């Protein structure tokens, strides 16, 4: 088999992408932060993006409004991680649940595009 | 059986010291579990640019490393958020490897979460693992187990790594 024969797996899991800004990040142990957030939210969390001033994470199985209700608790949990310092502007700046896909309404494909990313 | 292994972490956030590399020790532990007499080296993180990644792979292979493991950059997120890590590891491997096997995990919205590639560059076996610690740990363990069974069956190694990754999502 050649690389052209991709093995593709679709995972049926709901996730919400959460972005926190107003933090100073240096020397962060992502594993520790994920554990703190998992304890707080009682759900799986994956840190997917880190800059010197922001964090982005996937939160699984929790609705957008429930994430926003927990904003203060989430910010406090984040502050417990080594390598993160909160500023006065620390906040959840965006919460976006991923789109669901209607299997009967698959968007058209344009050349050069990843086949699976037509729905974004 | 490999005798000289190179671990190459990738990521601007690692190179800048914003996040710690907790993956590389796990990778090294598992490689040494396969061959305790091997030389295993972890180099400084490489930035998220295809050219930098490709050059480092070629340089390592030319220096006699017969196994190269890349960490991170396996997803597709950077195309949708400018603050996400740049995912150029799998595309770099796509460009230079032969006899390669690939497997990808997608969310139900069609977004590619992770692509795992394994293949050969000359006599050097090269593959990647995802950056998130639990995913890196699960996939390197799967690599270890399937490599010990049959180090030449890249299709089976890739498949077992993808299954281990999928299991991290309860799927």
Structure characterization notes:
Chain A has a domain at 15-96: Alpha-Beta Plaits (2-Layer Sandwich), CATH 3.30.70. In chain A, 22% of the residues lie in helices and 36% in strands. Chain A is built from three helices and five strands, in the order E-E-H-E-E-H-H-E. Chain A has helices at 30-41, 64-69, 71-79; strands at residues 7-11, 15-25, 45-50, 54-60, 84-97. Chain A has a four-stranded antiparallel β-sheet. In chain A, strand 3 (45-50) and strand 4 (54-60) form a beta hairpin. The longest helix of chain A has 12 residues, at 30-41. Chain B has a single domain (4-167), classed as Molybdenum Cofactor Biosythetic Enzyme, Chain A (3-Layer(aba) Sandwich). Chain B contains six helices and six strands. Chain B has a six-stranded mixed β-sheet, with helices on both faces. In chain B, a hairpin with a 4-residue loop joins strand 4 (98-107) and strand 5 (112-121). Chain B starts with a strand and ends with a helix. The interface between A and B is large, with 44 and 45 residues.
């Amino acid at each position: 088999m050649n690389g052209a024969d991709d093995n593709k797996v679709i995972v049926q899991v709901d996730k919400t992408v959460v972005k926190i800004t107003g933090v100073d990040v240096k020397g962060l142990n992502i594993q520790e932060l994920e554990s703190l957030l998992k304890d707080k939210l009682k759900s799986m969390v994956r840190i997917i993006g880190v800059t010197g001033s922001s964090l982005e994470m996937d939160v699984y199985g929790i609705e957008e409004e429930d994430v926003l209700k927990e904003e203060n608790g989430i910010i406090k949990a984040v502050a417990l991680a080594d390598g993160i310092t909160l500023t006065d502007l620390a906040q959840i700046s965006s919460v976006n649940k991923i789109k669901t896909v209607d299997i009967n309404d698959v968007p058209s494909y344009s050349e050069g595009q990843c086949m699976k990313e037509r729905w974004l | 059986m490999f005798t000289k292994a190179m671990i190459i972490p990738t990521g601007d956030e690692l190179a800048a010291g914003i996040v710690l590399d907790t993956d590389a020790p796990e990778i090294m532990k598992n490689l040494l579990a396969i061959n305790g007499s091997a030389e295993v080296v972890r180099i400084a993180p490489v930035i998220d640019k295809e050219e930098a990644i490709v050059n480092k792979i070629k340089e390592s292979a030319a220096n006699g490393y017969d196994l190269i493991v890349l960490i991170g950059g396996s997803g597709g997120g950077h195309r949708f958020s400018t603050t996400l890590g740049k995912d150029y590891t799998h595309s770099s491997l796509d460009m230079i490897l032969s006899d390669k096997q690939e497997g990808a995990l997608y969310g139900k919205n069609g977004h590619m979460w992770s692509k795992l590639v394994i293949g050969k560059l000359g006599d050097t076996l090269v593959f990647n693992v995802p950056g998130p610690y639990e995913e890196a740990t699960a996939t390197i363990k799967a690599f270890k187990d399937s490599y010990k069974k049959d180090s030449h069956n890249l299709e089976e190694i890739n498949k077992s790594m993808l299954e281990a990754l999928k299991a991290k999502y309860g799927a």
